[in-house]
């Protein structure tokens, strides 16, 4: 069951409250049983699920109800708050600063989608008018530099790497220094991964980290491993100063709920989530909008932010044309291009309540 199915099951259970003639302890127990089953199917840790049930029960008092208080609303808000706690560690995330070089180093196991995610993050910031670039310091995996080169060229992002140099520390330090001299603001360094946690992997990460002195270390996590994310996140945090986590492959795995809740329990802020293979299948992770979208409640604030990014108010020329009743095919084409800049249409639709 993917996360979308989890959202449908929980929202369906909550909607059943509206058809209930009376809200009793038995009705609440039935609702919580449905929600607990859905969360366990999404691989959320059973201890966390049991704690959620107890917290919701303790938040609802049937013996001492204020007259006129909407019990359905109370239960829905209690469930919403507890779901929020599952995925929100309450730790502030790193914010890059404009006008200076922000070095971001990526770490993670091989196969987690680390190299693709590097390009996605660079593209995300490039669309928001940051001067971004990529450095390929992965000399362990054959074809890593070719992959960065292909992705970066397609997205029109400057990149640095080498076919001849085998020392990742040399490549990383040279690439970062080159881009710093050229005034780049977001410098993303991709490092080697392994099939499992090894001393050689951690030693190499430490050497690269000491050489480039990153402002933020991002750990890329594969959602398909579910609750095992917690052990991995803790292992990496003990070895390198992991500041943020990106969870990938959330679009088609039943263990996505387990991955998100497991990482949150390590107090690591999840900053982005990968929801597909395309460069636009990538979105900032903010716990409250995420839970709202999961439950079909929409994210109006996020939608407004996306529209504001287009800076439509600055298009005075189009406004003047419309005032005089002129609207050409070229104008229509430009508006379609603006809509495409907002990202995949499916993501936009999820931000509208009820869709």
TrEMBL record:
This is Signal recognition particle 54 kDa protein. InterPro entries: AAA+_ATPase, P-loop_NTPase, Signal_recog_part_SRP54_M_sf, Signal_recog_particl_SRP54_hlx, Signal_recog_particle_SRP54_M, SRP/SRP_N, SRP54, SRP54_euk. Belongs to the GTP-binding SRP family. SRP54 subfamily. It is found in: Cytoplasm; Endoplasmic reticulum. SUPFAM superfamilies: Domain of the SRP/SRP receptor G-proteins, P-loop containing nucleoside triphosphate hydrolases, Signal peptide-binding domain. It catalyses: GTP + H2O = GDP + phosphate + H(+). Its main location: cytoplasm. It holds the Pfam family SRP54_N. GO terms for molecular function: 7S RNA binding; endoplasmic reticulum signal peptide binding; GTP binding; GTPase activity. GO terms for biological process: SRP-dependent cotranslational protein targeting to membrane, translocation. Residues 269-282 form the SRP54-type proteins GTP-binding domain. It comes from Artemia franciscana (Brine shrimp).
């Amino acid at each position: 069951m993917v996360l979308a199915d989890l959202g449908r099951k929980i929202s369906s259970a909550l909607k059943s409250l509206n058809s209930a003639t009376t809200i009793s302890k038995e009705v609440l127990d039935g609702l919580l049983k449905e929600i607990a089953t859905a969360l366990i199917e999404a691989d959320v840790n059973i201890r966390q699920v049991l704690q959620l049930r107890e917290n919701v029960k303790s938040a609802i008092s049937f013996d001492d109800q204020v007259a006129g208080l909407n019990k359905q609303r109370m239960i829905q808000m209690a469930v919403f708050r507890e779901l929020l706690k599952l995925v929100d560690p309450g730790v502030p995330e790193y914010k890059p600063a404009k006008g200076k070089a922000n070095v971001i180093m990526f770490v993670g196991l091989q196969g987690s989608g680390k190299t693709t995610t590097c390009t996605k993050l660079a593209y995300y910031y490039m669309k928001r008018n940051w001067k971004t670039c990529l450095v390929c310091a992965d000399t362990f995996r054959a074809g890593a530099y070719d992959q960065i080169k292909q992705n970066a060229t397609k997205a029109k992002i400057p990149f640095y790497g080498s076919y001849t140099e085998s020392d990742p520390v040399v490549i990383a330090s040279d690439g970062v220094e080159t881009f710093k001299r050229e005034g780049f603001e977001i410098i993303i360094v991709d490092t080697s991964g392994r099939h499992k946690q090894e001393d050689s992997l951690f030693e190499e990460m430490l050497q690269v980290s000491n050489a480039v002195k990153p402002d933020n270390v991002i750990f890329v996590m594969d959602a398909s491993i579910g609750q095992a994310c917690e052990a991995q996140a803790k292992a990496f945090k003990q070895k390198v100063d992991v500041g943020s986590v990106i969870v990938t492959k959330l679009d088609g795995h039943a263990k996505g709920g387990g991955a998100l809740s497991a990482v949150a329990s390590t107090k690591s802020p999840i900053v982005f989530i990968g929801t597909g293979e395309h460069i636009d299948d990538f979105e900032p992770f903010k716990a409250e909008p995420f839970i709202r979208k999961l439950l079909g409640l929409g994210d109006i604030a996020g939608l407004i932010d996306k529209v504001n990014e287009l800076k439509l108010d600055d298009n005075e020329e189009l406004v003047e044309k419309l005032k005089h009743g002129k609207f050409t095919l070229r104008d229509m084409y430009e508006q379609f291009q603006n809509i495409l800049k907002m990202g995949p249409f499916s993501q936009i639709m999820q931000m509208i309540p009820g869709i």
